[in-house]
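One-letter codes give the sequence; the integers encode the fold. A sample entry reads:
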Amino acid sequence: MKTEGNFLPAEWVEQSGVQLTWPDAETDWVDLLDEVVPVYEQMARAILEREKLLIVCRDKSNLPEFLQAENERLLIHEMPINDTWARDHAALTIMEEGEPVLLNFRFNGWGMKFAACDDNQITPTLFEQAAFQPGVPMVDYSYFTFEGGAIESNDAGCILTTSECLLSKNRNEHLSKSEIEGFLKNTLEAGKILWLDHGFLEGDDTDSHIDTLARFCSEDTIAYVKCDDETDMHFEALKKMKEQLQTLTDLENKPFKLVALPFADAVFAEDGHRIPATYANFLIINGAVLFPIYGVKQDKEAIEVMQSLFPDREIIPINSVPLIKQHGSIHCISMQFPLGVL
């Protein structure tokens, strides 16, 4: 991990911990609690084995028994919540001369699609409740609507994002693309914003968050979702996305190494609509990668690809079908913090 300069650290740098916002009967998970809580429990156990776990919840008495026990790595903070998509309501962390600085943005339910009045207050409330290390500052950008799932950092000055999300209506439509790019460069300490104009997943509510489509796995490597089935509705858009990825370059104008992730067989909700099964929505933690699987034949190949990308980390498969029933996956429900934050 870098110790000098100002930058947005990549997910693979050493972490102090991960935030999860816990589902309960007053969230959209109400009809799926029996399915989804075991997913959260598996993630919580894996995180606690390796680093701190910050749990935001409405009522800690509703947490499972193993999270009721004393654990120096476990931090629990109670407050009102709407739902549990921590990637998008949690703080982002930049490093300024080796010290972490929290950034608080406005979360408005992905362009006012869903209620988010309580989720928008989670980060300021955590700051007020001293959830973070003493002395870690928080800069308020609540006039700018933004979500953590919309960006990827390569730890070397490049930010990858999608125009479909950042230029969508009901987020920051009063700003031009160049104004948004300038804001991101300034606030995220980035030298280059890499825009993708193609790619989507049916059933995705986020307007094509980058973490469903393409992810940095090192400074020079991008893993991306590839569809080989010409009859699939995603084929053309993902083909164009790959072609655009091939044109992107880093700060030294060098192209990135591209590694294809398989495209999961279609997964459908009980009412028949397609839900967004993607292998790009993994979470990197200290010593491991929490990896979504969907009970389809591509799971095995996807795990092998991920192990090749992270040979020194344990790949932990997690059944994420319950998560995509609410149109997200592992990365969407979590937010990592680098050293010095928790």
Q: What stands out?
A: The radius of gyration is 19 Å.
